Amino acid sequence: MNAELLTKAKSLGFSDRQIGHLTGQTEDAVRAERKKLGLVPSYRLVDTCAAEFEAYTPYYYSTYDRGDDEVKPSDRKKVMILGGGPNRIGQGIEFDYCCVHASFALKADGFETLMVNSNPETVSTDYDTSDRLYFEPLTLEDVLHIYEREKCWGVIAQFGGQTPLNLALSLQKNGVNIIGTSPQSIEIAEDRKLFSAMLHKLKIPQPPNGLATCEAEALAVAAKLSYPLLVRPSFVLGGRAMQIVYDDAELQHYMRFAVEASPERPVLVDQYLEDATEVDVDCIADIGNFYYPNQGTIVIGGILEHIEFAGVHSGDAAMVLPPHTLSERIINTIREYTHAMARELRVVGLMNVQYAVKGETVYVLEVNPRASRTVPFVSKAIGVPLAKLAARVMAGKTLKQLKFTKEVWPQYWAVKESVFPFNRFQGQDIILSPEMRSTGEVMGLDDDLGVAYAKSQMAAGGPLPESGRVFISVSDSHKGEVAEVGRAFAALGFELVATSGTADMLEKAGLKVRRIFKLAEGRPNAVDLLKNREIQIVINTPSGATPHADGVKIRTTAVYTGTPIMTTLSGAKAAALGIAALRRSGYGVKTLQEYH
Amino acid sequence: MPKRTDIHSVLIIGAGPIIIGQACEFDYSGTQACKALKEEGYRVILVNSNPATIMTDPEFADRTYIEPITPECIDKIIAREVEEMKRLKANGKLVLLPTLGGQTALNTAMALFRRGTLDKYSIEMIGANAGAIERGEDRQVFKDLMISIGLDVPLSGTSHNLEEARLVAEKIGRFPLIIRPAFTLGGTGGGIAYNREEFDEMAKRGIELSPVSEILVEESLLGWKEFEMEVMRDRQDNCVVICSIENFDPMGVHTGDSITVAPIQTLTDKEFQIMRDASFAVIRAVGVETGGSNIQFAVNPDNGRMVIIEMNPRVSRSSALASKATGFPIAKIAAKLAVGYLLDEIRNDITRETPASFEPTIDYVVTKVPRFAFEKFPQADPTLNTQMKSVGEAMAIGRTFKESLQKALRSLEIGRYGLGGDGKAWRIGEKVYGDRDILPREVIAPKLSVPNAERIFFLRHALRAGFTIEEIFQLTKIDRWFLTQIKEIVDFEEELAATKN
User: Is the Cβ of B429 closer than 8 Å to some Cβ of chain A?
Assistant: First the structure.
């Protein structure tokens, strides 16, 4: 290829991928060609003064307006930390937190740290955070250039979420030293076939499942399992296009319109465990730092029990640490499975596991040998900086050396609640699903579980009312349990308001109910009452696969009027517990420094 | 003037959970402030309910409350800390720094002021006092103030109910009209109404969502060019411009949803100087004693009329961007100014030689591109308007706008490696086009005239489909200078493609 043309392409910001595609070559071939020509970027300083004074903080960007490369030489051992790129739903501040911790910890251990990220909102892109900051795109091309220019010793790819993880294998193929859990282990966890084989070997149950690369295969898998099924694409974060389907027609629609399935990217089809309890576990391990697989340490950082049933994305679910309903036996099984998998995957650093507990059986849903979204929450709940420890383990230390070998079981409650952007997306139903849609999270801490939950609701912007009216409308499948919730609210002095179906159930249970019209029956109906602020809290669970238009209207009205709304019965029970606690004793405040 | 010695403890309110319009930029600014104030020897008390923040790591403050950010809860915290300070026999007072935790912190601080908590415990607000916050945040007060100092503002009026709103609409006399609820974050509940029906609906919703039940109804500046200035002031009235930012997308798109470029690219030096002078006049008139503010301007491309749109008397999303774009740590400096330092007394960490009173100069171009998540909300309307909808952003630096734009686009994590030509297909509704396909003009035109998340890519489609720069300008009102730059990228793409085989 013409050197002049290539030079111009680079100065106009074209990536190797674009150049390759436009000129009929591979990205690798373009890169090789460029390197032969010596056509690599220069790194310039962001120095506040257009180079008029000397700059001391190494904050760099690349350019093909070449010459004047300003990278300062250094002989220290360098570790590159790959950030998460722009925030999006599923990949937010939690991963930036982990990257920042990695940098702090390794700086303190004497390494020279390099941060690569393109997100201007973050602490990781503060020039103070790392020894060197590269404000660059997180693509193979851009990262390789920096790695080679700086002659790094190693790269941390497991802290920045899916973005760096997707780069890990190709970086490794290009000679990059990925430290921590090996990309091969990460692949075992992400590749459904390898993963099933591992669980089989370890005798750990998982929900019956299959793979599909096209619609026909999906239907064949469905025929072997039974509906409902949980379907999702491989290699995504945040439950993108993850869905529960209830029949063939829905499955077909999903395969046709919702995903692009291919032999490289098959769709995962799992038996959906209805009404199971979901549990998240974050652990830290140093197994891969030892020669023999039976050596090394694994410590569970936290076991988080979801308040919503399994099937609500773990990024959207409210969680309680430590678990509030699980038996000692179940918790021990969870411990045992977590240890077995961390050892088998020779984990060095962090690992997150999602379990579903149904009856006495613990199923593994997913394993992620990397920093998870819950790491900051768990770290603050137990008072141990897990991400810092993990970074130091990845750089060669053992957990024994770091004196973290025992699980911490807090003597108070920490509740995580998610925050959603529904008020921005008018018309969007707010039902929680396997597709993550929350943008952020809050934490409620207290000695009393009810108060901790109530605080989490206050912090999330939907404070629980201490009295007033509750509107209850649940789907047929939940009508059996509704009496318990109704009784709890009635006992707290709330007036129960319901439409015919739910009202029948409540009355059968001996509760007094004010009946109101369904939207189509007449006025005033639930929407009117909400708009008049005559309802203080809504309990509304969705019915079946396709929610009724009525339900959507009621839920969205609750969002616009700022009325707290619970869309699961477990959420409603937690709310009743919280209200009772607030009415009993109010709430106090306490610093993190006093907790730990 | 040295730092204040009458202060013992500083209470910082964080921004709480990440939501659209208030993301981790406030963790960045809050963390800097905590570090700066601890460095100065103050006892730092922090409240933030978001556990995923760095600022809530126990070592960044002396007292870290992971508790709800509500006036009632902070009232309890203040009462507790006042007791604690007595116990410590603290020599000095407790002050509140409300300007680093976004709109949440500002609103909560104002609520504490209004309910009398601050008076009760004699707590001073540093950085910006209640008067300045009110002047900056109350749209009508702000507009009157601007007019009184001779600056131009859009025609408008405030209203508290639908009848008042309709009267204002009549006075302005033409649609579209902008509705902006007072004291809401990222413009929640605001919008652009093109007809009476939409107007009534938005006005009602805006009044409902505003915590003070107030909206501003405003003359539409759709299609005007939009600019932002990040300015700082110290208590000796020294003012500096840290960064100037130009919005690639004209008025009508929330600045958080707009592609933005620093420094300003399409103004003459004279126009820029007028804007700089106006920025200083604004920060002085509003009376932000110390710290940073963000001031937004609109310029009519036809006649150059410049109006002030709004100002944020606090650290904002744009100031995080400005800090990263220039290397000047606005939040850190704002914290130091708030405790009494002057700009010329604070050293610039980067040069170690120049003081913070030197305005940053940049010899490169910075481009920020928003990241959207409409795929998660298929039932919602994906049109961009004055209510922010993006969930994140990527920034890139290059020596030219073209270089930085393409770098920013490949940073977005949407499978794109630049403006186009990377082999990835285009999905438009139910239809899929190849990467190098020429799209039909009737598919392209509406994607240009109605702002949407993919509009930047449709500029390429339009140019390749034979639209002229003038046609695109008429449809988008994006400045012709930017369009010319994009044309250079697109033309070169053809040149490259021509070498195939």
Answer: no
